[in-house]
Amino acid sequence: MLRYIAIPVLLMSFMLSACQTSMLKQYNKVKAGMEKDDVLDIMGSPQRTQRFHGKDRWTYVFYDQRIRFEKEVHFFENNAIYVGDIWQPEESKSAFAMDKANDQRNVEIDSQIAKDLETHRRAYESYESQARGTDKVRYLPTFEPIR
Known about the structure:
Elements: H1 2-19, H2 23-28, H3 36-43, E1 48-52, E2 55-64, E3 67-76, E4 79-85, H4 95-132
Antiparallel strand pairs: 1-2, 2-3, 3-4
């Protein structure tokens, strides 16, 4: 009796173990130009999705022989346009570099505003003195002090 139960269980375990494939091997089947449905058939649902500037970004996280992999597939108009490791922008286009450039530009703008403010203040003082006539030397009589 035990033999009749053990043989089917043993056969099922062999069949199921043969169906397991490496996620890395499955991921290597994904190519640029594939549609979303094809990628879903191969890889299954992604762990993370993002939509940015009309592009979908799917991230898959999996382990193969105790090594952690994070891979991405980018889609534009339902077709894969990028397949590979996590995409990072160029160093010059990163948020940190852009913030640093913007901070430098803001410092330059602030110093220019300060210079313009001083120039305008001096121009206004000059205009005021001309309007009041204080910029011209007037004849002042000299008085002899009384003794």
